[in-house]
Amino acid sequence: MGNYVNPGNSGFSRIRRDIYVDKSGLIGLINQTIDTPRCLTCVSRPRRFGKSFAAQMLCAYYDKTCDSSSLFDDLDIAGDPGYEEHRNRYDVIYLDMTGVIGEASVMDVVPYIQRNIIRELRDQYPGLDVVEGFGATLANGTQKTGNKFIMIIDEWDAPIREAGDRPDLQKKYLEFLRSLFKNSGLTSKTFAAVYMTGILPVKKESSQSAISDFKEFTMIKPRQFEKYVGFTEDEVRTLCREHGRDFKKMKQWYDGYGFRNIQSVYNPNSVIEAIRNDDFDSYWTQTSAAESLMGYINLDFDGLGRTVAGLIGGVETKVDTKGFANDLATFRDRDDVLTLLIHLGYLAYDERTGKARVPNEEIRLEFAKAIRQVRRDDTIRRVQESQRLIEDTVHGREEAKKDSMLPALIIELKWNKSAEGAIGQIKGRQYPNAVKGYGGDILLVGINYDKEAPAGKKKHQCKIEKYEKAR
What we know:
α1 crosses α3. The protein has 471 residues and is of the alpha/beta class. The strands form five sheets. Strands 2-3-4-1-7 form a five-stranded parallel sheet. Helix content is 40%, strand content 14%.
């Protein structure tokens, strides 16, 4: 066994000894791609969404130098038709790219990988014919061993993120991946399957990706991998029941992501931490992504600050996700920034409506903390915008509000009645028709004041509904 070639099953064995949710069905999806034109899979997820756990699981299942039957016989994958056929039958190449960067400088990433994989292959297979090309050497390895490699790359995009201001280093790394996975003859000869995981989808270069043959499954389109993005509601209910935790609080704090066929998806790391600590809190701050949130939402794109303010207040916003360049530096407009926040897990995205929202209490706290750290000049600009809005309203300048990214508000005030009654009046008298040409969302706001309460103790009730426009 080695660090990069056939690393064994110790990593997954440690995972099984802790609080564990069975996600082994993912293996069945990868088994279906083995030795097919679909053998290249890239799954992107936010930090702390179980990417490394999945990579360790795949290593333990495929690595032929160990027997992992005791780790999998009681899991869902054991009922898969291909379970015995593929379990512990392959040489595995495993790269944890964050670990590689920890050992080598970003400038030396590619040579470091090549040196260490070749050294470990020689150790495990003496007499391996090492030739000039790295890919050709791997192909020689398959001839010597009699079977192809399963390659697993965890945090594939770490070098892209680390070399953010060095496009030359990014290009060198992408060319390395391209040499392995864009050469159809070499790829089919060498790899039975490849599984890459990272925060970002495959990096786009010019009009096409450097490694575009990968089938991608993202936070925007997870497709058949959607049940493996995080914990489902049934899984969280079971955990709460087994460990005596409050399910309603768990849902409030960590639910909020959803996909086409699964409406409730929970942040897995945060759920596990809340169970371990018996404490509902934001565990997002433990990720390095949290440190850069303010930098993204403070970018000077038209309407971005107002959009973020609306998101924090519970308003959904339309996002065009198609133009994003899949990196942390190339932003053209607010849609690119919001798309990045979806990939980072700060926003949940509804593919059916094309809208994003802040998913839960944990993320709302992170946004609120980031906003409190906003630059002073940006705060002044927000105050000035608010003052202009009031002035435009007083002077009846209707056109001045046309560029607002926020929803239109229809407000009805009542004395000593009810907020619900105020909403009913808005609907009954068809007030929304007055703004039926408005392209954005419309919120109905009913407010009732207690007129008889003494000064300083007056209370009010408020009800807010999103107006559903006629289709």
